[in-house]
Design brief:
Elements: E1 6-12, H1 19-26, H2 29-32, E2 35-41, H3 45-53, E3 59-63, H4 64-72, E4 78-85, E5 90-93, E6 107-110, H5 117-127, E7 136-139, H6 143-152, E8 156-161, H7 165-171, E9 175-179, H8 180-184, E10 190-195, H9 196-201, H10 203-221, H11 226-237, H12 241-251, H13 266-279, H14 297-307
Helix pairs in contact: 1-10, 1-11, 5-13, 10-14, 11-12
């Protein structure tokens, strides 16, 4: 008799931040735990959030500020259940842009204008004397779409990009004005979240999913698996081998793209909340406690299961 499997769908951005997820899929770690996992590539945060709200997807790997947005703006009962990494964002500018002041009066390209890495961009520009209103903002979706927008129009001069797009842009002659974490400090970028009702109703499946994800991340981070991880990333995202190698090496460097065991960084998350508060505020005038958005019990159980 064939054992039924729990179906889990997710949408992710096309980058090395998801190598642990791709590894778990390729190694059969989900299947071994009774899960049928479908990993789709998203066009942007708006699509991700909508698909989670309407139940098209059940678990999301994305910037955790998207979960905060859903909870605060959409009043959705969403819960963050694991970490991931910093997001590995660089501020990338067109070749003719030589200073921050060259951005003034021009257009910057973001995923969604009111969440996540757009807030990083506004924060970095403000630290260099460019307040909102001194540039225009174009929402265009994920990093590939943002890079395409910059290539299409010389007035689209800057965007937060992460690997592989940040690397592909620099091959084209674009410049990096530095990484986001160099400017803002510790920052919780990527994480895992779900609707609380689904997590409660599918608690064991979520624990098994997270255990597979952690194992996949461990495999991807292991030095002896570097070549295999590069090949997997290149195959999954159709990347040039050199870009796949550099993207993965960037995510493994000491500045931390990928967190060990997909751990959640409380200090970094407080920074995420503070940046959102500075950009758009919260209904009560200050960030809620970080714990209001978190339930790490599933993650903790996954780690316990992996240790036995």
């Amino acid at each position: 008799m064939t054992m039924s499997r729990t179906r889990v769908a997710t949408k992710v951005f096309p980058g090395p931040q998801n190598i642990g997820l791709f590894a778990a899929e390729a190694l059969g770690l989900f299947e071994q735990r009774g899960l049928d996992v479908d990993i789709a590539i998203t066009s942007g945060s708006d699509e991700q959030r909508k698909s989670l709200r309407d139940g098209t997807t059940q678990i999301m790997h994305s910037a955790v500020d998207n979960a905060v947005h859903m909870a605060v703006v959409d009043r959705a009962d969403v819960v963050i259940v694991a970490g991931g990494g910093t997001g590995m964002n660089d501020l990338i500018v067109r070749p003719e842009i030589r200073s921050f002041q060259d951005i003034r009066g021009k257009c910057v390209v973001v995923d969604a204008a009111d969440t996540a890495y757009a807030f990083l961009l506004y924060t970095i520009l403000a630290k260099h004397g460019l307040e909102r209103g001194s540039y225009r903002v174009l929402p265009r979706g994920g990093a590939p779409q943002r890079l395409a927008a910059m290539n299409e129009n010389a007035d689209h001069v800057a965007a937060m990009l992460n690997p592989p797009c940040s690397l592909q842009a620099q091959v084209q002659g674009y410049h990096s004005f530095g990484s986001a974490v160099d400017t803002v400090g510790p920052y919780q970028g990527d994480g895992v979240f779900a609707m609380r009702s689904w997590a409660t109703s599918n608690a064991e499946a979520l624990v098994q999913y997270l255990s597979a994800f952690v194992l996949g991340t461990r495999w991807a981070l292991a030095p002896e698996n570097l070549e295999g991880s590069i090949g997997l990333l290149g195959q999954r995202l159709t990347l040039d081998p050199a870009i796949a190698r550099l993207a993965l090496e960037t995510s493994l460097n000491s500045d931390g793209g990928l967190a060990q065991d997909a751990r959640f960084d409380p200090v970094g998350f407080r920074q995420t909340l503070a940046i959102r508060n500075a950009c758009v505020g919260f209904p009560d005038g200050k960030p809620p406690s970080a714990e209001a958005f978190l339930d790490m019990t599933y993650y903790d159980k996954a780690l316990v299961a992996l240790s036995t």
